[in-house]
Design goal:
The protein is built from 2 helices and 12 strands, in the order H-H-E-E-E-E-E-E-E-E-E-E-E-E. By secondary structure, the protein is an alpha+beta fold. It has 2 domains: about 1-105; about 110-265, Beta Barrel (Thrombin, subunit H). The strands form 2 sheets. It has a 6-stranded antiparallel beta barrel. Strands 6-7-8-11-10-9 form a 6-stranded antiparallel β-barrel. The longest helix has about 80 residues, at about 25-105.
Length: about 270
Amino acid sequence: MKPLNLIALLLFLGGVVWTFTRSDRAVREIQDYYFASMAPFLKSGSAMETQARKFLDETRHSKELEVELDTTRKELGKLQIIESRFRGLEAENETLRHALNFKKATHFVVVPAQVIRRHPTTWWQTVDIDAGEDKGIGTQLAVLSNDGLVGKIDRPDKGRSSVILLTDEKCQVSARVEGSPEVGILSGQRGHFVGNPLLRLKFLSTEASLHQGQRVFTTGRGGIFQPNILLGTVESVEKGALDSEALVRPSVNFADLGTVFVVLSADPNRP
């Protein structure tokens, strides 16, 4: 045994012997002094034990909450997926409802189709639709939407067709302005546009008296586009020395084309 340990043991034994050789009163005083000295440490230890138990309880509770939170997040994700699918079906049903109403209301025999392709470089020139020669679609047929004229069939194929849009400068339409004698040629403009591009109605009279908001319709001349199809509304008029031109805002939202209708012929059963 090391000397220091031996000395400590001898001191402890000496203290014990000294304590028991004292009177009962002295022993009680020593005990009282000892417990009084140890009381703060015992209280502190008890408080630390309580805090430790509380901490452990909170830790277990936190883990349970974390599990519940993770479960809730998973359930919320499932609900969001279901809601997204529901909204998609709702939008699809609304589109089909509009298409059915259009077919019932129009004076033409039409084939409904969906826009399936748009190229960024030809965004305002052409689109591809999912209907072609197998549905009786041929070249130069008018293409409509619920809001008016979209364009005409450019290249029909089996199961799909290419449509040249009204916003393309190569798509020219004989047009008239409602409430006036003015007749001209409507076409798109060359260039790139941020929003829906405006159309140009050319070859109006020099004295053209038009105002913003007047509607523009097809005349039916040329044999491609049937008469009285809505094209847009007048935005402004630019008068020149020989003729006037009007800027026309198209009635169709060409930035968001979905369902369109290819006109096969006029409906003989409608007035």
